């Protein structure tokens, strides 16, 4: 009788004390040095594995899956799963899971942090102070835009978008949004009475625009030169969603030419290698993809992924199964 446990790859370093309970079910292969595996190395390491816990850095393609006949589950700790080819997962009988919900509030907090830092020029002003340029108080020193009483625009009104909208109540803001589909009246009312508008109106009327939509081929460069040109010159743009939703080159041009006032960016095209011209701009707040990075939330994301692989190895349906069509097979 074969009593060996199924094998699981944990592709990135993450809270060993949370991973501990996986030992009851799996023989674990960890990556304590947190190296990013090349596609070839990932393929080698996944040979003979039942599953993998990963992040958005692991690309799961049809080609990779065709070389991994024993793989049963890929479980990301992220809510975004644009690194998974879901169709290929289904055709190779591999379950794909993500980690929704647990990061909504923390990510919404951070969207606000970026919006406020951008509108009130916090990092630019701090840099000015740190390099010793502050010589006197000035009536127009780092004047920015108000948050309170302004109009918040949200593109992508899923769970994170709605959590962002709810926070607007304390600031007396009006909320407008655009989404693939309009929310129900009850959802709109819970999201600080958010008003559904078309994309054009959203771009033209928002004082502060936050992007909270998932990446998909349709969302690629959904904010480009034409869209930025429609925004108010006083507006700010925040992206806590995914790189590639914004055309970074067009954004850099718009920021340089004063087409919009500023941008707060947590995600970038081709991250972590961001467009070098961002670094020369004063009217940007730049952070390294940390919107969900509170300790409690990151642990909750890891635990959500753990729950999914444990359900799979027990022969249960993982709670966050994305390719539910696999169940029919
Ligand atoms: C997510 O959960 O999608 C965050 O962006 C972290 O990758």
UniProtKB/TrEMBL annotation:
The keyword Oxidoreductase applies. The keyword Oxidoreductase applies. Residues 113-291 form the D-isomer specific 2-hydroxyacid dehydrogenase NAD-binding domain. Residues 22-323 form the D-isomer specific 2-hydroxyacid dehydrogenase catalytic domain. It comes from Undibacterium seohonense. Keywords: Oxidoreductase. PANTHER family: 2-HYDROXYACID DEHYDROGENASE-RELATED (PTHR10996), GLYOXYLATE_HYDROXYPYRUVATE REDUCTASE B (PTHR10996:SF283). Belongs to the D-isomer specific 2-hydroxyacid dehydrogenase family. It comes from the Bacteria. Pfam families: 2-Hacid_dh (PF00389), 2-Hacid_dh_C (PF02826). This is D-glycerate dehydrogenase. InterPro entries: D-isomer_2-hydroxyacid_DH, D-isomer_2_OHA_DH_cat_dom, D-isomer_DH_CS1, D-isomer_DH_NAD-bd, NAD(P)-bd_dom_sf. CDD domains: GDH.
